[in-house]
Amino acid sequence: MEINKELIQKIAQNARLNLTEEEIKEFLPQLKEILEAFSTLDKLNTDKTKPSFQPIEIKNIYQDDIPELSLPQDIALSNTKHKKNGFFQGPKAL
User: Fold this and answer.
1) Are strands 83-84 and 87-88 parallel, antiparallel or unpaired?
2) Whose CB has fewer CB within 10 Å in the chain, the N or C terminal residue?
3) CA-to-CA distance for 68 and 70, rounded, in angstroms?
4) Residues 83, 77: contact at Cβ < 8 Å?
5) Inter-residue contact 12 to 19 (CB < 8 Å)
6) What is the residue-averaged pLDDT of the chain?
7) How many angstroms separate the CA atoms of 9 and 20, rounded?
8) Tell me, what's the pLDDT at 56?
9) Which residues partner with 84 through β-bridges?
10) Is 87 helix (H, G, I), strand (E, B) or coil?
């Protein structure tokens, strides 16, 4: 693919950018350099490489949901003075 002024103008139009002639002249060598770097990567043999969608492997941080015995109600309510009928009592909501 040839990198030229028309290609940069087409890319700019697709991106809805209004580039001046000076900006196009500035971007032309930069775009060529970027695409040359990627063409170097195309030459690498990646047949035995797994695709990587994240830079760091994502692991599940959640633990298994195993049912366990909970505190008895009288022990859970033992440190509060705000209780009523065996439940915590909060402020009234209007």
Assistant:
1) antiparallel
2) C
3) 6
4) yes
5) yes
6) 89
7) 10
8) 83
9) 87
10) strand
Residue 47 C-alpha from the chain's centroid: 27
Q: Which long-range contacts (CB under 8 A, 24 or more apart) does 42-49 make?
A: none
Tell me the whole-structure pTM to 2 decimals: 0.45
CA distance 80 to 73: 12
- Amino acid (one-letter) located at 11: I
Dihedrals φ, ψ of 71, to 5°?
-65, 145
Query: Which of 64, 59, 58, 7 shows the shortest CA–CA distance to 31?
Result: 7
DSSP 47: T
Q: What tokens were used for 38?
A: 């990627």
Whether 31 contacts 3, CB under 8 Å: yes
